[in-house]
């Protein structure tokens, strides 16, 4: 269930309180369309907004799943904090992130300050602290040499750098923006103490593999079969090709991403069999696509 930007209610605690995860539909703020996407390796720089009347060490983000967890780094001091994304926003600007008053205090930043936002999968102990409204331990300060590099990536003024999902929708000129349905994810045994999504059996290095849901995949009509299995999305063709060779799949370019799919299959039963194989390989978010 997606909270409104000004929601004050604290979530119930416990690992299951991180589920279901809401992705949601595209929406527009100040003339900019944001397309929510479950990007596991999200890492962007931009500018900070403040949220009044919100509790805990929490934030609002235009595209990341709700809830999710991010490390926020001040690009003025290098100070880094862990925050929980609980809302969509900021709804009054296209800034990269809005933080609650307590989160702003912990970060030691002011509205309009430059920040880096990186999605992370923290231990369950730290997730529980944030769900309870408490602050997690401070992260190690980011070295100022890296801060200077990150500052060079900043846009000239307030608007955030384009999100991964927004860049993908712009790059794929052949398709209009596609609504991404709310996704309910139940915890699995493989999530373990981290309480996060199950990674592939051999996860690629950071910065390579994207969300297994990935961008809205191109589904062709007709052809040899009506069913395909969407396995994962990658930022490089090489990584996608290596995974495809291991699974007997194929790589389908989609904007700036490379989708790994198996099929086509003539029947749903054949697609189900492939889906089971793919999930046994560790791609727990794989799903069946239909055409026509």
TrEMBL record:
GO terms for molecular function: peptidoglycan binding. Gene3D superfamilies: RlpA-like domain, Sporulation related repeat. It comes from the Bacteria. InterPro entries: RlpA-like_sf, SPOR-like_dom, SPOR-like_sf. Residues 1-20, 153-176, 188-223 are annotated as: Disordered. This is Sporulation protein SsgA. Residues 224-286 form the SPOR domain. Residues 197-206 have a biased composition (Pro residues). It holds the Pfam family SPOR.
